């Protein structure tokens, strides 16, 4: 929604399409077409009179405000900018596990295509007369490393394929011969979701004969098996290693920096402390860039929440209007509102000021003293976790940034960056911080979906939850085009079943 | 349409889908989705209770009636058969031209995907600021070797893309900068079509700024240019070599045997004389297989028409009922009907017996003597060209064979092949020969289509011919599924334009 009259837009990307990754697991067994999740960047550019360069960003020249990009012939190109938005996404985390080249992944279209081909290959090979029973068992073992949304949804799609299409397409393979295993290092799968959701999913999977192996870590991946073991504990510091043969192994865990963000982080030195993503302030400006002209959003970035404890004296003195050294009920209520306005992420902790007041007035004096206030702020600081690396966050950040940039453009005669007056720092400061409103977490778990809309409002396995899940993603699509294509795909699947062609 | 109760069917193929190749050119610029041209073999097998093996046929053991197939691990498998149908298609002909690895082809899904990626790559690279004007000119030169239906339709799709989508997607490239050239060794493109059709297409292309270079041959292909020259003539036996740089080069010419058919041809020795395809009799039985249990159809086979001249004395004496040494009008009419019944391919030459009689009664005696009859039969033999390697022929052959095999099964108690009584030769002889009825030739030439329905009934560039073209192919699809998908694709293109994503 960036104003095309106010900005001259250039998009630099090594792929010329935008991929809606949350639905990628659905393409692996043919429920969705890959093309339906893809929006050509040039279609978007056409609407915005934007320029598109199929190049890969290599380096940032902060001095001259240029991005250095490389084309696929290896030639570099310097693109000057007034404002730069970094949205390069992330890579899979390896955790130092050897042999990940034997795993399939689900980050790109190529990954999805390879996964689909591999799944079909396993079934095709397993139904050949030349295949021994032992090989067949191995081929029909699907191992998923990581019990996050991607792993769970891939398991669910596999399960759907097994139930709906396997008997018709591969009559020589019975359901019992297929083994699907999820290896998860945490206590539960879907552990960023509400606990009830994750245990519902575990039960649903165990009924569907999907093995959920929690508290285990993958140690190594070989060509046709993984080595895994229970997480070391005090009682058992060297747990026994186990072997699980596979026909295909899916690696879905973790988020790591791309070479570009890694390089930028090093360039920015001490201002960047996070190992997994670029740190930004709550206005999405990359920390350490002096003129505030570089923004980052999506999986490649994380918002640093300021430590409230550091400003404790200032806040307390401002709030203590009658200067009696403690905060009474009204003073605290005012302070809460002021803090929420200033630090939107505190809303979930401070919105119910009355309750909070009673909770932290430990000595029951009817007022909060500085020590009690310190405990409260520390608790908030601790609970303010980083935002999840989801499409939902990235989409809201994109909208926030476009709106802000439009406002900045509308309120300045000429672009401050262009005028060489040190960028837009003072302007930007005047505008609102980014505030994430969590609309709920969704996951498709095979035949049904689970949803966690926050505040304990959960949806689990209701009839129709599958369509709710589809509906939410459907409404999030970039364009009417992808929305229509998705609707067509789902209709096709309903009418014709999945497509078992392998190419 | 093979009877699933009469036969136990096994399908052996290295790919697990059937590809409708005539529409493949449409996928190269995103008008059609590749998946829409594809029917999973397992869907067809499900309807027929057939078994599918994803293996590649290697060799035929005629003695033991076994097909030896190899899986993708290189292990071989022997599949016994009572009747074998060979439909392995063909390969591109190289004509000994060096450097064809630099060309794109259009035989398989992978070919089409690579072509699509290459086309988009050329445009993406051409619009980069790092690209020099000379490179841009090279990148935007598309060379098509071969002016048959595939080459022409690919040129037409490229043209559509240039007209409909280029300005919106690639604003930095103008239409004039794009050069499309077709190199054709013959006098005309589409030379298996009616002359009027091919000259209409040439005019249409020249108006569309597509260069048609006829009477030229490609001598060599390098990484980024072709070397070509005029066909040598008596006056100019060593024509000058010319160079044409390209961003992509499409090789569409010729049909050659696959390794499997080549091997089988050698095995069958003297019975097989054709260098490009397996020879069959007019009942589609592969020549040289003694028990007639091996059939071949489609591009991998060609029907040997018996030389009528060889039977001249027999036919003449049978027809000359009054034994006066010449054929009068009635005798000739009877003979014509008998010959048509026996050799269906003579129908187009003999159906108008009256005209033919007058034409070949050179001396005007009102009767045809043996010498005049010899001229007639030689003319027919010469004009009986082999059937074109088209989907239309293959589809009719498939229907013919299924119907025949059903009849054979219905009229035998137990399968003759199973009983070890020497196969079904006598049974098969009693049934009709294959008769090809040409329904017309179609080609899409950009914005419109050309059609040649035989007997001079031509359709050229009518408004709506494009939809006629689509309609005919649409009705030829294997299943309701592919038909629906095609309709959706065409609707999508109409609504949303083509998809420029490259993956």
From TrEMBL, chains A, B:
One of its GO terms (molecular function) is NADH dehydrogenase activity. It is a peripheral membrane protein. It comes from the Eukaryota. It holds the Pfam family NDH2_C. It is found in: Mitochondrion inner membrane. InterPro entries: EF-hand-dom_pair, EF_Hand_1_Ca_BS, EF_hand_dom, FAD/NAD-bd_sf, FAD/NAD-binding_dom, NDH-2, NDH2-like_C. Its main location: mitochondrion. Keywords: Calcium, FAD, Flavoprotein, NAD, Oxidoreductase, Transit peptide. PANTHER family: NADH DEHYDROGENASE (PTHR43706), NADH DEHYDROGENASE (UBIQUINONE)-RELATED (PTHR43706:SF50). This is EF-hand domain-containing protein. It comes from Piptocephalis cylindrospora. The lineage of its organism: Eukaryota, Fungi, Fungi incertae sedis, Zoopagomycota, Zoopagomycotina.
